[in-house]
Amino acid sequence: MNIIADTHTHTIASTHAYSTLEEMVHAAARKKLYAIAITDHGYRMPGAPGRWYFENMRVIPHYMEGVLVLHGQETNIIDMDGGVDLEPDCADTLDWIVASIHDVAFPCEKPTVEAITNVWMNIAKNPHIHVIGHSGTKEYAYDFETVIPEFGRTGKLVELNEGSFTGRKKSIPNCKKIMELCKKHSVPIILNTDSHISATVGCFEHSLALLKELDFPEELVVNASTDRFHAYLKEHSAIKNDPIFQSK
């Protein structure tokens, strides 16, 4: 399986990451990726860039070194109703939004399965969200059987996050369950690295191994096909309004 896009990455604008935007794009070009999404953290993450960073992403060319560069954000889920820290002015202009739970931005110290299920069900209703980020986190387990089909129904891509295999190892059993249910319910997924340094852009070794173990259908992996990924963007992303993208 050939993965053609990496749509969850961070630059030095997220101050716990270590590469510039141009370094991330160059790494994607070296890996011969079709696309990369730059998704620095929303403002509730300590050290995150502010509103003007995301509003000014319009100055970034959508094509650099032959790579499609999506202007994005990893927005933080900030309340028990599925509220996020995506600025309203950015919601309709950014190309790509990943929604994730991070403990430093999330208010509940001892969440129940029922509470997190409600959070994700509300996220599924949010028309600005494209990707459900690293939702296998053990501390924030939810009713996978209920929520996964809803993600599929509302056009959300369920992320298999390569970073979970090294930085969130306790979440791996849940990641496997989630992938099994995506297969069962024919819910599209996306593989992402969550890279915080250019060296790991486009590296999907552990994720691909898990999909092989599960005999996961390639046709459900949106970023395993340029045509499939391009079609998703045309239907769901603000980039569809960019004349340069339309001409491709």
TrEMBL record:
CDD domains per record: PHP_HisPPase_Ycdx_like (cd07437)
SMART domains: POLIIIAc
Domain of life: Bacteria
Ranges for domain Polymerase/histidinol phosphatase N-terminal: 5-79
Alphabetical list of InterPro entries matching this protein: PHP_dom, PHP_phosphatase, Pol/His_phosphatase_N, Pol/histidinol_Pase-like
Protein name per its UniProtKB record: Phosphatase
